[in-house]
Amino acid sequence: MFLKKRFKLNFSYCTSTIKSFFFRIYTMAVAEIPPSAYGNMPLSEPPPGVVPDLIHPQWHGQGVVIAAAIGIPLMLIMAATRIYSKCYLSRKWVLDDSSFIISLVSAISLISLQVALVCEGRAYGYHFWDVTIGDLTKPVLLRSLVLAVGTGPLIWLIKLSLFSLIYNVFHPLAYIRILVVIGLALSAAWYITSAVVTVRFCGPHGGTDRLSYLAGLASSACGDTSGIIPISSIITGIVNIIVDIYLLIIPLAAISHLNLARKRKIGVFFIFLTGAGACVMSILMLYYRTLQFHHSDPYFWKHDTTYHNVSLFTVSTIEYTVGVIIPCMAPSAKIWNHASTHLMSYVRTRFKGFRSMDDSNSMSHEREMKPMARGPEQPSPEMDTIDEMLLHIPSAALRSQN
Predict the structure, then answer these.
(1) Among 136, 260, 349, 352, which is least packed by CB within 10 angstroms?
(2) Where are the domains of the chain?
(3) pTM of the entire structure?
């Protein structure tokens, strides 16, 4: 009897939020529809001239799968080169490397969750008018909530490796250290706050069953375009852009004042300038977030959340991939130089019958890179700081600017 009463109360609350969220234009009709028929109703009416297909709807999630299929292997390859460089060439593992592993795991987890949300179930990747309430199963709702809550903190963990890279490369510069700490603290405060607010307003209402999750996600605070969570989502998009631009400006401003050779300075510029790609992706993410909100428009099909999220997930996958690749570029260049040096030596010995001994730069670089020249606990004395190890930036060049 208690369970039956609880179910009726829960269902009553859920259906009331659904009517305010999913069926604004069906308000009059819904009152005469029995509860058993709710599962077969579309989330919104189709736009003019479009016939909904609730039996065999077209899936539009290919972009998310393609981006993930390219991004995840690319991240793993670049991560492998970085780990190899640190473990077998430099033989120096620092805190920056540990933060990179955390960022890598966070990026893969976030991308995998997006792929699971699009590929499993029949909700995301379809137009709103081709999805019914019955398609919003508990696994779909649970993954939606986990993604909504975890996106902010996981994005911060992805950016953690970039902050850590800048901190370690330019650590002799006091103002860089201060800027990095400020950026980390302020961004963490917002991302954590947004996660807590999302749990508060979008979490299950009245239990842990499907109706409870549906009631939470369809509540006015979470699902309505004028609610606190949609507004928070827009603010998060703006914060992402600000943080990415912040991460781009800090190193570029510092590099421009270093006493480096022009060729070396251009190389360092190029590594951090790759972050401009992340800025572009953040701007596109904000654009796709805003597509879902038409405050003054009574036609809910224009929001088309389940469809627009595909573009949002695709662009975000590219941004996360770029964020992981940037800290790997310098170690990858180190491995390339190491491999090319040995390859050229082999070619000269094999086909010309002699080994070039007059190229002092190549030979000194080969001696520096030789893995067995020192023990695992004996890092090269020429690479006693992370800036020299990653980017070959002389410490004197940094200290001269401090």
Answers:
(1) 352
(2) 62-331
(3) 0.74
Q: Is CATH 3.40.50.1000 the right assignment for the domain spanning 62-331?
A: no
> Are the C-beta atoms of residues 401 and 173 closer than 8 Å to each other?
yes
- Residue pair 251/245 in contact by the 8 Å Cβ criterion: no
Task: State the amino acid at position 235 in one-letter form.
Answer: I
Q: Which two tokens stand for residue 24?
A: 């604004």
φ, ψ of residue 218 in degrees (nearest 5)? -95, 5
Query: Using the 8-state DSSP alphabet, how is residue 300 labeled?
Result: G
Query: What one-letter code names the amino acid at 209?
Result: D
The pLDDT tens digits of the residues spanning 110-142 come to 999 999 999 988 889 888 888 888 888 889 999
In whole angstroms, how far apart are CA 306 and each of 38, 217, 267, 317? 19, 13, 42, 17
Average pLDDT value for the chain: 75
Helices (H), 218-356: 220-223, 228-255, 262-273, 275-290, 305-325, 329-351
Q: Which of 18, 306, 42, 331 is nearest to 169 (CA)?
A: 331
pLDDT tens-digit readout, 266-287:
777 777 777 788 888 889 888 8
Is 95 in a helix, a strand, or coil?
helix
With DSSP H G I counted as helix, E B as strand and the rest as coil, what are the percentages for the chain, rounded to 5? Answer: 75, 0, 25
